[in-house]
Amino acid sequence: MQERIITKQIDCVKKFQCILAEGWLPHTEFLILDEINKMPQWKTYLKGIYDTKLPHQKILVTGSARLEIYNQAGDSLAGRFFLHRLLPLSPAECDKVGVSYTLDHFLERGGFPEPFLANDLIEANRWRLQYVDSLLRVDVIDFENIHNLNAIRLVFELLRERVGSSISYSSIAEDVAISPNTVKKYIEILEALYIVFRITPFSHNIARSLLKEPKVYFFDTGLVKNNDGIKFENFVATCLFKHVLSKIDYQAENYALRYLHTKERHEVDFALVHNDQVKEMVEVKHADHIPSPSLHYFHEKYQIPAVQVVKELKRERRENGIEKIQGLHFLRSLAL
To answer: What tens digit of pLDDT does each residue of 116-127 get?
Structure first.
């Protein structure tokens, strides 16, 4: 392990020297810097380029999730960049670029380009095994000095089985034999590396709301270990989250993705929140077309627009103010 770390450090130094030796002509209009966060003092270097660039020049900095993590410490780049988060493929994006797909293909392969476009399922699974191993052995170590890799791998595996349910840090801690605070820390690391994302309950202006622990979903639906209904819920979550981030990154709007839960056990899977107000509720079902009682409760009490998204639905309709929409139709309608 120590030899591998030293080798990586040497490689980084070599890349740093190569980048410093690079140059471009004054009439160059577009500079692309990829994975620059691997270079020592990369923010100082980038600030220097930005502050001395000519007015017509534009800079695109690309990289993994670690680029955003490393930007949170050290010298500030405030006022010098706009953040654009690139999430896995979705039906709405595939429609834009003309890529053919089926909903079942998304649920089987996930939205990452490599498994999604793989020639067969074996090739997709081979990519995923390597992806997970790299995440847990390389990315996690690069991010923070984790001594118990086996524990964070166990947390990762347990999360794969508990998608869509509120996560109990204490319950996972008992299963893994670590503290609840350590479980929370590990989940935050997985979240920071864009492996999972958390959805917390919404409480503002919802009477008798209950602040519960978050629900966790995977960016890669192919990692979910559960039935088709949970896989579909995870995929809807990723598409909704992508929709929300596009509102934030591209339109500078104050959006968030939450879920609803009260002390009376009324719960709705997702709530699209704009300026601290719930604008739309979304309940996800695999084949059940009967309106969710909780969805009906929130709609009647708070007059919040409500949608029940059903993967297997023969006929779309509106019933008691609640829209029942076929899953693929709904996902294709999400603006990016």
So the answer is: 999 999 999 999
